[in-house]
Amino acid sequence: MSDDKVPADKIVLVEKAPKNKRVTTQDRGSNFRGVSVNGRKYQVITFNTKVRYYLGTFEDETVAAIIFDFWQIQMYGLKGKTNF
Q1: Distances (CA, A) of 51 to 46, 48, 54
Q2: Phi-psi region of 40 (alpha: psi -120 to 50; beta: other; left: phi over 0)
């Protein structure tokens, strides 16, 4: 092996490519728990350990969040995770 050195003016630094960024709610979706965007409407889906409950689609994001909260309180009582 030779012990050749590369001149400083020939060195190029390459930045490491960023890893895949996680998409936040600011980029898409809803700011409420359990509410997601389906086209121009908002849908409410909640998950249990074995079952997925589809609660419907709504025109207003806030109404969808209230429906999700109602369902969480019905299923888990006051320990349910709610939006409001």
Answers
A1: 9, 5, 10
A2: alpha
End-to-end CA distance of the chain: give it in Å, rounded.
Answer: 69
pLDDT in tens, 11-61: 776 676 666 555 454 556 889 999 999 889 999 999 888 899 999 999 999
CA–CA dist 52, 79 (Å, integer): 19
Domains and CATH numbers, the chain: 28-84 (3.30.730.10)
Q: Where are the beta strands (DSSP E) in 1-84?
A: 35-38, 41-47, 52-58
Q: Is the pTM of this model over 0.90?
A: no
| Total number of residues shown for the chain | 84
